[in-house]
Specification:
The chain contains one helix and seven strands; from the N terminus they run βββββββα. The chain is an all-beta fold and 135 residues long.
């Protein structure tokens, strides 16, 4: 058996995605079950997020969920799905984006462990563009 280690402090996730990285496409590997379709630490129970397919769908560009750090479960190492990404590990965003100034990109409300109210746990907000910058 080969063990893989993940360095969450440097921004790595379970599936090798970087936190804050913009991902293009509409089909992604399920983060809760790591694309297997079966929940980890269970005996053959189908993943409730991907319904056993191992693939989830999102519209538009997506980023790794800052609240659960792309794992799909919160608290970590449980089968309770993240309230921000609904267990997918990814959230849809509208470009251009910038880091949330309230939570500093963590997705958690400062002072407690609830999702940030400003960015809704995503860790990023849509950047406001001035009319002069568009020209």
């Amino acid at each position: 058996m080969v063990w893989k280690t993940f360095d969450f402090k440097s921004g790595g996730t379970r599936l090798g995605r970087k936190i804050g990285e913009i991902l293009e496409g509409d089909k992604f590997s399920c983060s809760l079950c790591s694309g297997t379709g079966i929940l980890p630490r269970t005996k053959g129970i189908k993943c409730p997020v991907c319904k056993g397919a191992g693939i989830v769908s999102l519209t538009g560009p997506a980023i790794v969920c800052a609240y659960c750090k792309g794992r799909g479960d919160y608290p970590p190492r449980t089968n309770i799905t993240c309230t921000v990404c609904a267990g997918k590990g990814l959230v849809s965003v509208t470009k251009p984006i910038e880091v949330c100034t309230h939570c500093r990109g963590t997705g958690a409300e400062p002072g407690n462990k609830l999702p940030c109210l400003k960015c809704r746990g995503k860790g990023v907000v849509t950047k406001k563009i001035n009319n002069q910058e568009r020209i």
